[in-house]
Amino acid sequence: MAPKNATYAARAKVHKNPLAKQLLELMERKKTNLSISVDVTSSEELLRIVDQAGPHICVVKTHIDIVEDFSQDLVEKLTALSKKHDFLIFEDRKFADIGNTVSLQYSSGVYKIASWAHITNAHAVPGDGVVAGLKKVGQPVGRGLLMLAEMSSAGSLATGSYTTATVEMARRHQDFVMGFIAQRRMSERDDEDFLVLTPGVQMESKGDAMGQQYRTPQQVIEKDGCDVIIVGRGIYGQPDKIEETSRMYRAAGWEAYQRRCT
Fold first, then answer.
1. What is the pTM of this model?
2. Catalytic residue among 31, 94, 136, 241, which?
């Protein structure tokens, strides 16, 4: 494993997980560790935000099941934007069922997530079967999985022994599990390099009325050793300033990373 202060490029050269390697290379190429979470209910609005933020991000995070006018056309346009702006798509599905069920949820139904989302995620609650079920579908088409080790909401039960067990589960599936959704670096072992994508990021450490807790890019990247900042309302909450705020968060995240590497 590369040390905490290693560059994304150095980590990419030795990483064993193909999609993690791809993301690290992308981040180095674009000079960004910013992911935008676009939690809107309109296809048109989602695509508009993504197109404006696209030049500044490495990942777009979606909740595709909240889009009221979902269609295959949306998937095709979102995929085209990922190629145009050079970013990966992360469907924040949070799978949490037995292997057979999640295989079907991932491959089939209305959304056919595995056909377009480079990354998805899962809870560890069901046991290793949830990873096995998703791996069966996703690995043959080059997808990657994040395990939910920690969450940014107040009162989250994803702590302590649960988080430890989640890390151990990921270790058993490093060919498909590329990292974690977490609030801090999850491992210091020399033989592994899990990426950490961190939600709940804003320029000011505040919260909302429903338990969300925010931390700054400096806290997340430089202090706690995470790799990607996930920003939602801090960007799309200002619909007339998407490009401007994306640029601002990109700069803040990258500067924190550069300080960490020195």
1. 0.94
2. 94
